[in-house]
């Protein structure tokens, strides 16, 4: 679904993360329980080793130094060094495991989103800007990189360190330990407020990044550059992008500075606690209560070990709050229902003959308010040709979309060899129906790779045979590297007619029993169109052909011609029959001839 752009200062009312969302994020890690369990063991060992140092320091201060026991002092020094070496090795191994798990989760999330989007209907992409879709995959999932790969492990590690340190402090001296904990409730409360603020700003930032990505996609493509240059709108486009970039920059600053003053207050409080602890320790010793200097030093050392992971823990919680906004955006796409889904138990069509029938078909685009097609009944026997004509907006292209199942009918059925196309597997239907549209799309790859996109195992001879059938082999052979020539972005090194013929060759290569040509010869000149007509006549032999056209000269030899008017069948018959009736088709032919007549006047007349 397309989102309504929001202004920078607008509060979208982002709710706090729900438990179900958190559980859903945790489920992403479920396939990796074994390495995560090992990470947990490593974290526990590292936390225990970390709190051992203050106890060794206490022995140094209270025992080794007062007694002048150099042997004991040496062993304690070796122990302190060994703890550092052990914790470093454990941290490296833990980082390796968490990075592998995190990248596996990222890979699974990216591929799940991409494969889900690949199954979305044409209507979804008609409603959604391409840049918005790309932003979800690149910006949103990309921003989750740090969260997924390291934040989870950091959270557990710091939490374990805090718990073990608290236990150790209580074991040393419960009075000083409790005094050290007075900052905790205030820090947690303040952290929750900062987390909600960060999540709201993150959601706004990602929306603005999506807007900026959509602008880049639209204006930096070849089509966009041609449009802006030829309309003189380059300064306005640059100004719009500048505003969007400025909005993103201000949101980035807002995200970075959110809660910074609150954090400064927490940091100041944590820095003051050790000094106050020494003061309290001195007071306790002054009252005659037993408290060794080594215990006091060890406890203050543990305070540093407590406050450092505690501060990190609070920042991680804030980061997780912000990341939930990203997960929500990704899950929003994953939860978008697939409107044209393959049904359970869908069947293959092993040897399709190509018998096409539209049985009482009605269809309306979502939100259109009225049917685009109403009560369409047509029968196209296998191996015959049907031409669909009519004025703009009569539903011609929509009829082709329904045959290829780019949309599903609202009522009635589209049948292929007696099977409802909704009951066929997607692969079976795409193998049976080859589609060539007016708006051809070529990949930024070689000509051969573009053709093999339809049939990856095609031989070079098969490529040339398909190209000859589409009347484009001579053009391709004359290229600098022949069929290995890179076509360029969207095939802009070719003319419109050449691109359409390459698209025809790509479809012909699959040898589908049903050929759907949607304005497929609209960009061809008269000479090439005649050659194409001959080629298509040969290609259509034994093949069901459905042609959607405005230029009526291309459909006169069709076995059936159907005239659509406002989504309904107005007339059906052959070219001669419909002309004899003098109805809508005859009027279209007369209008077509009137448009073509000025172009056919001899030079100088």
TrEMBL record:
Please give the chief subcellular localization of this protein.
Answer: membrane
Stored InterPro entries: AAA+_ATPase (IPR003593), ABC1_TM_dom (IPR011527), ABC1_TM_sf (IPR036640), ABC_transporter-like_ATP-bd (IPR003439), ABC_transporter-like_CS (IPR017871), P-loop_NTPase (IPR027417), Type_1_exporter (IPR039421)
Report how it sits in the membrane. Multi-pass membrane protein
A single Pfam family it belongs to is: ABC_membrane
Q: Where is this gene product found?
A: Cell inner membrane
**GO (cellular component) term, any one:** plasma membrane
- Extract the GO molecular function terms from the UniProt entry: ABC-type oligopeptide transporter activity; ATP binding; ATP hydrolysis activity
The reply to whether Ion transport figures as a keyword in the UniProt entry is no
Residue ranges of domain ABC transmembrane type-1 in the record: 38-322
The ABC transporter domain, residue ranges? 356-591
Membrane-crossing ranges are 36-57, 69-90, 159-190, 265-284, 290-307
User: Family per UniProt?
Assistant: Belongs to the ABC transporter superfamily. Siderophore-Fe(3+) uptake transporter (SIUT) (TC 3.A.1.21) family.
Name of the protein in its database record: ATP-binding cassette subfamily B protein
């Amino acid at each position: 679904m397309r989102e309504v752009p929001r202004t920078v200062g607008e509060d979208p009312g982002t709710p706090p993360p729900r438990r179900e969302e958190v559980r859903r994020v945790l489920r992403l890690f479920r396939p990796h329980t074994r390495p995560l369990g090992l990470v947990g063991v490593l974290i526990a060992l590292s936390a225990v080793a970390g709190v051992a140092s203050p106890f060794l320091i206490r022995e140094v201060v209270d025992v080794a130094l007062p007694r002048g026991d150099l042997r004991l002092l040496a062993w304690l020094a070796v122990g302190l060094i060994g703890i550092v070496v052990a914790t470093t090795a454990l941290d490296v191994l833990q980082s390796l495991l968490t990075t592998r798990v995190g990248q596996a989760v990222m890979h699974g999330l990216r591929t799940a989103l991409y494969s889900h989007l690949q199954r979305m209907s044409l209507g979804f992409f008609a409603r959604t800007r391409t840049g918005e879709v790309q932003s979800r995959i690149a910006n949103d999932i990309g921003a989750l990189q740090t969260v997924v790969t390291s934040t989870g492990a950091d959270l557990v590690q710091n939490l374990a360190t805090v718990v073990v340190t608290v236990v150790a402090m209580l074991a040393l001296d419960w009075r000083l330990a409790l005094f050290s904990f007075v900052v905790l409730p205030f820090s947690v409360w303040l952290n929750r407020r900062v987390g909600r603020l960060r999540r709201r700003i993150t959601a706004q930032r990602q929306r603005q990044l999506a807007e900026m990505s959509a602008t880049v996609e639209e204006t930096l493509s070849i089509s966009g550059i041609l449009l802006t240059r030829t309309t003189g709108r380059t300064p306005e486009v640059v100004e719009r992008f500048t505003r969007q970039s400025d909005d993103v920059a201000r949101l980035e600053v807002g995200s970075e500075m959110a809660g910074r003053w609150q954090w400064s207050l927490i940091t100041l409080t944590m820095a003051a606690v050790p000094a106050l602890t020494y003061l309290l320790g001195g007071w306790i010793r002054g009252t005659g209560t037993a408290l060794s200097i080594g215990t006091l030093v060890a406890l203050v050392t543990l305070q540093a070990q407590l406050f450092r992971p505690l501060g990190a823990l609070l920042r991680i919680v804030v980061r997780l709050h912000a990341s939930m906004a990203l997960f929500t955006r990704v899950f929003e796409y994953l939860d978008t229902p697939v409107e044209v889904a393959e049904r359970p138990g869908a069947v293959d069509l092993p040897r399709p003959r190509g018998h096409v029938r539209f049985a009482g078909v009605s269809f309306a685009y979502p939100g259109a308010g009225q049917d685009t097609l109403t009560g369409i009944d047509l029968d196209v026997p296998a191996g015959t040709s049907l031409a669909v004509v009519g004025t703009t907006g009569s539903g011609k292209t929509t009829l082709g979309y329904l045959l290829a199942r780019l949309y599903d009918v609202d009522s009635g059925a589209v049948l292929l060899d007696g099977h409802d196309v909704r009951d066929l597997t997607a692969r079976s239907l795409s193998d049976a129906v080859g589609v060539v549209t007016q708006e051809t799309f070529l990949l930024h790859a070689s000509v051969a790779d573009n053709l093999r996109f339809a049939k990856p195992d095609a031989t070079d001879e098969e490529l040339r045979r398909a190209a000859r059938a589409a009347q484009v082999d001579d053009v391709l052979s004359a290229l600098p590297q022949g069929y290995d020539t890179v076509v360029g972005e969207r095939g802009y090194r070719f003319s419109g007619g050449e691109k359409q013929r390459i698209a025809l060759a790509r479809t012909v290569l699959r040898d589908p029993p049903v050929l759907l040509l949607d304005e497929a010869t609209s960009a061809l000149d008269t000479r090439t169109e005649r050659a194409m007509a001959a080629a298509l006549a040969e290609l259509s032999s034994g093949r069901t052909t459905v042609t959607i056209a405005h230029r009526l000269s291309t459909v006169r030899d069709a076995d059936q011609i159907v005239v659509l008017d406002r989504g309904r069948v107005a007339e059906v018959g052959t070219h001669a029959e419909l002309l004899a009736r003098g109805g809508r088709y005859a009027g279209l032919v007369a209008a077509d001839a009137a448009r073509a007549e000025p172009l056919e006047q001899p030079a100088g007349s």
